[in-house]
Amino acid sequence: MVHRVGIVGASGYTGAELLRLLAGHPELEVVYATADSNAGAAATDLYPSLAAAYGDLEFAAFDPGAVDGLDAVFLGLPHGESQKVVPRILDRVGHVVDLGADFRLPADAYAQWYGEVHGAPDLIDRFGFGMVELFRDEVAARVHVAAPGCYPTASSLALAPLVADGLIEPTGIVVNAVSGISGAGRKLAATNLYAEREQNVVGYGLLTHRHTGEIEHALGHVAGGPVQVLFTPHLVPMTRGILATCTARPAVDGLTTAGLLDRYRAYYADEPFVVVSDEPPQTKATLGANTAQVTVRVDPRTGTVLAMGAIDNLVKGASGQAVQALNLVLGLPEPTGLPSVGMMP
Amino acid sequence: MVHRVGIVGASGYTGAELLRLLAGHPELEVVYATADSNAGAAATDLYPSLAAAYGDLEFAAFDPGAVDGLDAVFLGLPHGESQKVVPRILDRVGHVVDLGADFRLPADAYAQWYGEVHGAPDLIDRFGFGMVELFRDEVAARVHVAAPGCYPTASSLALAPLVADGLIEPTGIVVNAVSGISGAGRKLAATNLYAEREQNVVGYGLLTHRHTGEIEHALGHVAGGPVQVLFTPHLVPMTRGILATCTARPAVDGLTTAGLLDRYRAYYADEPFVVVSDEPPQTKATLGANTAQVTVRVDPRTGTVLAMGAIDNLVKGASGQAVQALNLVLGLPEPTGLPSVGMMP
Amino acid sequence: MVHRVGIVGASGYTGAELLRLLAGHPELEVVYATADSNAGAAATDLYPSLAAAYGDLEFAAFDPGAVDGLDAVFLGLPHGESQKVVPRILDRVGHVVDLGADFRLPADAYAQWYGEVHGAPDLIDRFGFGMVELFRDEVAARVHVAAPGCYPTASSLALAPLVADGLIEPTGIVVNAVSGISGAGRKLAATNLYAEREQNVVGYGLLTHRHTGEIEHALGHVAGGPVQVLFTPHLVPMTRGILATCTARPAVDGLTTAGLLDRYRAYYADEPFVVVSDEPPQTKATLGANTAQVTVRVDPRTGTVLAMGAIDNLVKGASGQAVQALNLVLGLPEPTGLPSVGMMP
Amino acid sequence: MVHRVGIVGASGYTGAELLRLLAGHPELEVVYATADSNAGAAATDLYPSLAAAYGDLEFAAFDPGAVDGLDAVFLGLPHGESQKVVPRILDRVGHVVDLGADFRLPADAYAQWYGEVHGAPDLIDRFGFGMVELFRDEVAARVHVAAPGCYPTASSLALAPLVADGLIEPTGIVVNAVSGISGAGRKLAATNLYAEREQNVVGYGLLTHRHTGEIEHALGHVAGGPVQVLFTPHLVPMTRGILATCTARPAVDGLTTAGLLDRYRAYYADEPFVVVSDEPPQTKATLGANTAQVTVRVDPRTGTVLAMGAIDNLVKGASGQAVQALNLVLGLPEPTGLPSVGMMP
Predict the structure, then answer these.
(1) Fewer CB atoms near the end CB (10 Å): N or C, chain D?
(2) Tens digit of each residue's pLDDT (9 = 90 or more) over B280-300
(3) Residue C100, CB half-sphere, CA atoms under 13 Å: how many?
(4) Same domain, yes or no, for B157 and B285?
(5) How many domains does chain A have?
């Protein structure tokens, strides 16, 4: 039986990526797709890439009544919009999968990192944090999904086996990450222009990037206690891909690179979308795929553990991970319809 | 029933792309993959992108006996190698799909454009020219497939409706095309280095590029008579994608852009992998997909017809088209296992 | 004696490039730089690249009185603005160098290609068309300079030796050109976003791009009679660089590649900024430099002459060429302060 | 008086960049340029960018006698070659400026990081470490120059004001850096191919990159005692540019971002090629220029100091810095002939 799904906010990059992925999903069918300022436009006007599969799709203006009875609705909305839309649709559809940040954090952490009071705090607990590898039980136990952010996904998957076993100190963790420009969305800003990003690397959001709270939330969940991270994101001249390079101080003696690689392999042994590699992960190995690649090192000289994680920010870091979580809550095999092989070259 | 296939020459870019595409193909299973200098290497050493699907695949040294009984074998070999390998395997396997240039042209045209006598001219007729949209009957009538080159695919699909109906003069056709760097393969040459291709566009193979003969072959087939083309390829700083911009002189009066767009739509009405667009086609709309996008214009001011075609050179221009042709000869629905939605952004 | 110059419209890409070039010019000093919406901003806010030389520069709001007595004023304004500004400053300053399109074409050609009546037609004749190599006498004879567009510069320098000597037919000329994204300026449009231009090539302005008129103007000047061109520009994923690939029919018998290369070398023998190369020109060879590189071929098989020209669109195609023309009208050696070596790699 | 200089190893990227920079240097003239496997080739065959200034330059095979009496010789040789060449030329020329790693470190540190015994340890002390801002006295006191590596330059300039004043702990320093691909030189390796680097970020040399020793050497010199660094380099898809993101633990109480920015400004107040910026430095702001841009932050939440430095690896990180140091030892103003404005866009 094919499940009927809608996408509210389908004209942004995560929405377009959902359309791409769902075109190859045998069990989900997109029957409704909305846009805001692009309502009325053909999907192919914005994304001619969709022409062969969605030649007739026109973005509708959002109407809560139109989602009645859908099996699932994805939300690909700008920050702050989901908490307005969710109360209007939560009981009309089977499952809501929010790709925004609104339902990822507890209300207090949300207030701390986003600098505003949450508009629908009572609904947060109805969403599972959709980083399935680390929150599978929680996701399965709840009805709706808050799909995690891109940086938190790459960082948390890279560090999880370390914090799960208490192998590193929970403070002093440093995450440096680089991201392709698509992470900024389809926003008309000088900082997103080709001519200003090409041949250019720059850090941003120094000390205060909102994904810090989400990384600490995910790792804290795995660790079973507070974890503190200094997170520094950078833009690099590519469209997709995130690489997180993380350092931490060992909390136990005798760690070795070989030993940690074994632990990583054991930790992710049953995960279809996490590859533990001996070699440093390459973002391109994940391009277009729902796969994360991670590795780990121990440096006895400086007393440091180094972990790295690579993903495609629009797939494993957004739309693909959202589909994976929906597969789980729908009872489908998690990998259904999701590519695991990256596009290389 | 799943068909068992092999890839001889799997370590190059077209081989790796076959592995990527076949990982998502429900009816074909890769059971054999060879490499030459990379024999013995893990597939993931060269392409870590394959790790989630081919974690255990090791490239074998080629052994003709090993293909015995396979349903199909793809050849992804350097120029000139296929004509040596094909005689050794043609009767051992169900179908050979050659991604090289060796079996695309009649022997005399081959000698003209490649400057050497063909080594197995008697076998050429057993191969259909696998540009399915223009050669479907030929492909279906033969057992084996010579998958066309990347530039000929983009150019011929852009111009075919014009020559099919005798709407343009068969001489004076100019094809300017740009290609991503992957078209040059995984060759260690200074001209393929990142630092020398980035921020760089250059023409090459001026007047004599070998794909000229193939474009003339394809268009001549459609026209039912000789067609002459001046073809000028260029490298542009991207990995994948070809855009062919073609000009020709009208052979009939009264052509209009709207009229030609209608003809194009009619011509390609039943093709799952050709999109006729009003807007100029973008290479990125085809990225990772087996789809070609084409458009056409008439310029009364200068008396010129302008046609454009865009593809992903590694998919529709190589491995994807090869799978499409194999689907046809195997009696599968042509689109089986092939993505039609490009990766945008 | 250092000449004091102003830049009206200094916050766009051509303005910023003027600031870069003039920082290395020993005879010109920038004493005034204006912006519109960015008035009041530090130059380094928009272009941190300027920090070491213009750390204190703040963009002023334009005030005609502020240019009184300057030796020269560059205009880097959006289309249509120069014809409003020029009447207000023409008699206040020594020389105006307009980088916009407003004073390049005769009034009738302007109306044809820009679809509007020119606002200051009487002033057009006071501007020389600043493609110095082809219009040196005109530039030297007039006081002010209309710096040519980027595509016309690459195309006209590539074709000039052919039309100068009547070697090609003046109709049926086809110019296909590719440009880096900076040619579109610092405009906040989805088509200029990194994520939509990376890995993407697309034609635009099909049949009607305004630079067509300018190419025909320049070549007509050289030919001494009308020249007709079909011009098709494309965007390619790089920031700077234009490559024009031009085809034409020979007007005389017996042309050879070697003979034409000799003619090209003779034609440009005294030009410091035109390199005639045997090899196809690479845009990167011109990156950051005021140099154009050109080559030519004859194809007896199809009866075609092929000419190619490469430039950096922001230097030889805009700001560098403007400085070169100003050097000429100021009586300085033309190469003063202009780099001729491209940045490679 | 113009100084006559030679370049031994002129066909690599640092050699080509020297040729580019010296074409604009009023006091230095290149009279000799050698290559190894490219001996006999025209410089423009490898770098057509040089055509307008070095149209006749042919790379010579190296002959020690040919450098006799030159004022200076730059060495742009592969690792390990300089220690063979230097003994043969040191007393024939005024100054040697080595762009390789051979004379940067004391012999014991060299052995530690390069895993081999130095071939000419007695000569090391005749070279000053050419990071002029931090080693000006040493450079001025010695005759020859060992131009520092690219990563050490970006990292050390970012961290120097902190270690100079003992503001951070000398252990636990983490440097994450990204580099454009040109840093790997003109080496024909699969890892340098366009198609494998585009849309790809990867760490390399984990834990053991040789530049670690050089960073520790430079910072140790500034600190006046040992400094320990974990250095992790990454390749990002651009040709030029390095960004170093550094974290450390404060060694004193009460540090603030504003206070540290003031200290940085004071520390670099007289440096023409270091810009202290409030905003995070962008690599593109340094493109083609000899300028470094740095910033600093204090994070009270995690107890961390964050410093960042950006350079063009081929200019400030190699050839430009080498010229700056030579200017110093020749008694020329340090900025002579060196661009300080980056190419943006």
Answers:
(1) N
(2) 999 999 999 999 999 999 999
(3) 25
(4) yes
(5) 2
